[in-house]
TrEMBL record:
UniProt GO MF annotations: UDP-glucose:hexose-1-phosphate uridylyltransferase activity
Catalytic activity: alpha-D-galactose 1-phosphate + UDP-alpha-D-glucose = alpha-D-glucose 1-phosphate + UDP-alpha-D-galactose
Enzyme class: transferase
InterPro entries on file: GalP_UDPtransf1 (IPR001937), GalP_UDPtransf1_His-AS (IPR019779), GalP_Utransf_C (IPR005850), GalP_Utransf_N (IPR005849), HIT-like_sf (IPR036265)
Protein's recorded name: Galactose-1-phosphate uridylyltransferase
UniProt family annotation: Belongs to the galactose-1-phosphate uridylyltransferase type 1 family.
Species: Kroppenstedtia sanguinis
Annotated Pfam families: GalP_UDP_tr_C (PF02744), GalP_UDP_transf (PF01087)
Gene3D superfamilies, A to Z: HIT-like
Database matches in PANTHER family: GALACTOSE-1-PHOSPHATE URIDYLYLTRANSFERASE
Pathway this chain belongs to: Carbohydrate metabolism; galactose metabolism
Names of the cofactor(s): Zn(2+)
Domain Galactose-1-phosphate uridyl transferase C-terminal: 163-274
Domain Galactose-1-phosphate uridyl transferase N-terminal: 3-151
Length: 327
């Protein structure tokens, strides 16, 4: 277990050979279910230290294979699992909004706690859903990684937001919200505090963003009403995705928040959630192939002005089906 420096990208690769021993889709004896001996017999949502972490508070020394060019570092950080429910087969859109509020509160608590360690540079909250994105545990859960090195994609996003602010005096993501609200054709839903839309530039046919309307940078900035609104729109949007093709919809969901240490980014950064959604049709995958991976030259096979209409219709069907269950 170690970090290896990539001089071509000025970035770091995590090496975690211990993760090869992860369980693969167990149908019985789930460690996250009450009665397993691994978790309490009663819980609503729960933080669980990852049994197969890629990053550790006390990592071993790197293998002696580095050099002046190929640097290595200890894989310092933290990997946590966030259990959404004690029920083995329930999914996020099936949970009541008050239960999802508890999840948002736990995310916020862990973001604050992990941010206290000065060696942590970024805390990323995320969920992988579905075998199509490599999920090995069906029990409803997400994860949190606390990185000691700033991830490259986040660096690029921060620098773009900073440059836009220096050029215009405005927040880039606030401007994106205004642009999407003006156009309307890519907006899926909104409530008092959040917008959900397929941004103009997304590289996935259903690559939704959920963005705070207020200029806030992290969950810890939210009041109770804002957390409640986030819980509601998370339920509705994941439910809409399931209704799109009448099947569990695979996705990668990532919360983008301010760095926990380092430069103050409050003036130019903005909380949002990004969904990376691998389906382009009910049983067809939108693959990241050579151009996307080799050149980072994203290619969306669909017009989001068309797929947004499909997702809005699926959202409406979800609202009609849920009725009072959304309150």
């Amino acid at each position: 277990m170690e970090l290896r420096y990539n001089p071509l990208l000025d970035d770091w690769t995590m090496v975690a050979s211990n993760r090869k021993a992860r369980p693969n889709l167990p149908r019985t004896d789930c460690p996250f279910c009450p009665g397993s001996g691994k978790v309490p017999d009663h819980y609503d949502v729960l933080k669980y230290d990852n049994d197969f972490p890629a990053l550790m508070p006390d990592p071993p020394a790197p293998d002696p294979v580095g050099s002046e060019l190929y640097r290595t570092e200890k894989a310092y950080g933290k990997c946590e699992v966030i259990l959404y429910s004690p029920e083995h087969r329930v999914t996020l859109p099936e949970l009541p909004v008050p239960h999802i509020e508890k999840l948002v509160d736990l995310w916020s608590e862990r973001f604050a706690e992990l941010g206290k360690d000065p060696r942590h540079q970024y805390v990323m909250i995320f969920e992988n859903r579905g075998e199509e994105v490599g999920v090995t545990m069906p029990h409803p859960h997400g994860q949190i990684y606390a990185y000691s090195q700033m991830p490259l994609k986040i660096q690029r996003e921060l620098s773009s937001c900073k440059a836009h602010h220096e050029r215009t005096g405005r927040c880039l993501i606030c401007d994106m919200n205004r642009e999407e609200m003006k156009f309307q054709g890519r907006v899926i839903a909104e409530n008092d505090h959040f917008l959900a839309y397929l941004p103009f530039f997304t590289d996935y046919p259903y690559g939704m963003f959920i963005v705070s309307k207020q200029h806030l940078t992290a969950l810890t900035d939210f009041n109770h009403s804002q957390k409640q609104a986030l819980a509601g729109i998370l339920k509705e949007m994941t439910g809409a995705m399931d209704n799109l093709f009448n099947r569990p919809f695979p996705y990668m969901m990532v919360l983008h928040q301010r760095p926990v240490n380092g430069e103050d980014v409050e003036s130019y950064y903005h909380f949002h959630i990004e969904f990376y959604t691998p389906l382009r049709e009910r049983d067809k995958i939108k693959y990241y192939a050579s151009s996307e991976m080799g050149a980072w030259a994203a290619c969306n096979p669909s017009s989001v002005e068309e797929t947004a209409t499909e997702l809005r219709d699926a959202h409406q069907r979800f609202l009609e089906k849920e009725g009072d269950g959304l309150r």
